[in-house]
Each structure stands twice: as C-alpha cells, then as structure tokens.
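Listing S7. Sequence submitted for prediction.
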Amino acid sequence: MQQAHLVPNPPVTETFAYEKGSIGGVTLLTLQGTLHNAFEGRRIASSLRTKKLIVSMRGVRRFASWGMTEWMDFLRSNA
C-alpha cells in the first residue's frame, strides 16, 4: 500500500524560512531550516486566524538557543 505525502520533502537548508496557508478553518504552517533569532514565534502566532493549526517541522534542521525561546513563546500563544 502506498501512502500519500501531504507535505513534500523540503530542500535541506540552514536558513530559516516558513510558509503559511489556510484552507477552510485550518492553517498549515511549514517550517524549515534552523530556528534561531529569525524565527519570531509571537509574531507568527498573532498572524494565525484559524482555530486549527497543523505545523510541519519536517524541514527543521535544529533549534538554536534563541529559537527555542521563540518556539516556546509560539506554543504558549497558541495553547
């Protein structure tokens, strides 16, 4: 049996980038690269307009210390 991949394999990169899209009442947030000071968790969280969120971290290579702080702020903002 074959499984369909909902999120394509992202290119391997260290540079942080994200894509955000909404369909109906669901937002898909795709993160890639290294989460560091360029990841503004609170700002991204405040831009979400749906109650349901899917986060794809398949392309995340690692968390830098500042990125972990921002990630925790992101999670708190969306809890």
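Caption to Listing S7: primary sequence and predicted structure tokens for the chain studied. Strands lie at 17-23, 26-35, 52-63. The longest strand covers residues 52-63.
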